[in-house]
Amino acid sequence: MNPQRSGDTGRPGRAQVWTRVAENYAAWLLLMAGIASAGVFLTALAGGFEGWSLVAGIVTLLLFAGCWLSFRDSSRREAAEPNMVRYHPDSPDVVIDVDQDTGERQRHRD
């Protein structure tokens, strides 16, 4: 038997959120480095440096593959979390009341 802890609300903890943010930043850094290495690849190729263009091409492919794998892993993890509640209101200036019985949305009246 695993009783639920009193402070456990089903939301991800601070460490889980921090690791998810760090993974997303790493994926964006891989993407930017891949674009930069693609520029280096094209420059080396146009300059006639066959060896350097081969190295830059391999590095570019590895960086783009790492970026793709990181984004794919992140999207799979988000899809597997059943407790994620995402609510985007139509306008942040509008407060909406939701009827508990029917689920109908209505503007809030003071």
Overview of the molecule:
- With 110 residues, the chain is mainly alpha-helical.
- The chain has one domain (14-107).
- 59% of the residues lie in helices and 5% in strands.
- It contains 2 helices and 2 strands, in the order H-H-E-E.
- It has a two-stranded antiparallel sheet with strand order 1-2.
- Helix 1 (14-47) packs antiparallel against helix 2.
- The longest helix has 34 residues, at 14-47.
- It is elongated.
- Mean pLDDT is 80; it is low at 1-8.
Structural class: mainly alpha
- Spatial order of strands in the largest sheet: 1-2
The stretches of 5 or more residues where confidence is low (pLDDT under 50) are: 1-8
The tally of helices reads 2
**Tally of domains:** 1
Largest sheet: 2 strands, antiparallel
Region (Disordered): 82-110
Protein name: UsfY protein
Transmembrane segments: 25-46, 52-71
Keywords: Membrane, Transmembrane, Transmembrane helix
Short note summarizing the structure:
The protein is mostly helical and 110 residues long. It has helices spanning 14-47, 50-80; strands at 96-98, 105-107.
Attribute tags:
110 residues, two-stranded antiparallel sheet, 2 helices, 2 strands, disordered N terminus, membrane, UsfY protein, transmembrane
SSE blueprint:
Layout: H1 14-47, H2 50-80, E1 96-98, E2 105-107
Antiparallel strand pairs: 1-2
